[in-house]
Specification:
The protein is an all-alpha fold. α2 runs antiparallel to α3. The longest helix has 18 residues. It is elongated and about 60 Å long.
């Protein structure tokens, strides 16, 4: 590893001051999925995957829940920990 650092050109190194977002809950008429729902690094490349999984879970909850508010709560309960 020391050789790797020694041989790396200083001009090829970039620093990005990025940090993970603090998780939040939404309490309006908008339901977040994908990047907007998850506290993630902008460099993780997981937004599309999260959007697909969130869309599936949201649709599943909308089909099987007894009412809309229960479906949304269940979706967030499943989605937020991910």
């Amino acid at each position: 590893m020391p050789t790797l650092f020694k041989e790396t050109l200083r001009s090829s190194v970039a620093i990005f001051n990025a940090k993970d977002m603090i998780p939040f809950r939404n309490h309006s008429s908008v339901i977040f999925i994908g990047d907007s729902q998850h506290a993630m690094s902008p460099f993780a490349g997981n937004g599309a995957n999260m959007a697909i999984m969130d869309g599936y879970q949201l649709a599943d909850q909308l089909v099987h829940a007894k009412d809309l508010s229960t479906a949304i709560k269940s979706y967030y309960d499943l989605s937020i920990p991910r």
